[in-house]
Design brief:
CATH architecture of the largest domain: Sandwich
Number of domains: 2
Structural class: alpha+beta
Shape: elongated
Number of strands: 18
Length: 249
Amino acid sequence: MEKVEVNSLFAESLECPSCNAFYDPPIFICQNGHSLCHRCTKISKPCPLCRVPLTQNFRNYTLEKILEQITVPCKFAGCTKSITLFERSNHLKDCKFSDNLNCIECASSEEDLILHLIKTHDYKEIVMQDTGGLRSFSGPQESWMRDTEWPKGVWKFGKSNLVVRALSSSGIFHVYLYRIEREPVSIKLSLESEDIQFGFKGKLPHISDYQEKSPEPHFNCDVNLLLEKFVKRHEDDEDILRLWIKVSK
């Protein structure tokens, strides 16, 4: 059967309603007939359109057959190949012109790393003002006294997207930051009390520079010092201790 080039208007009807990207087979359907790509089926409960429970027992083979017959050009500049929508996901991961980024959690090559981190690895998206703002890390007192991995986030900071990880280890609080865009990003993190202030100021490395075995933190502080000088009790729950860090350019 002859393969068909797809126009942009028709292409919109071939996008997964959960991630707004082309369907990535295998494709599954909910009890009401809504289709989702396999990645969103794993992480979306229930169906984002009708809220009924999802199951991977029901495949949309008809839509998968359609994807096998429709071709689109590769999205990467310099690549002249046209591939079927069924093959698109694998091609984009292996294309020599790819500008995909590897996930720092699972090392997979991702077309949309931010969406992948949020949906697959529970990163929280936080929109900040262009000039910065305050970010907090909160938890019960025992979480500050033991080794803890704090909730991870993607900070949308003006035109920049920053991947942020924080953890407490051996009595030291660490913050790791990486930029997703290629353009250089400088940032300042600061803590201030009545008699002491310190922090980090400098250019952030690109996320492709992440070294899984021994990444270098950009902000370090003794947990006991934080508890003594900077950590405050949550205004709505006295059992929760909160650390505020000022973020600016």
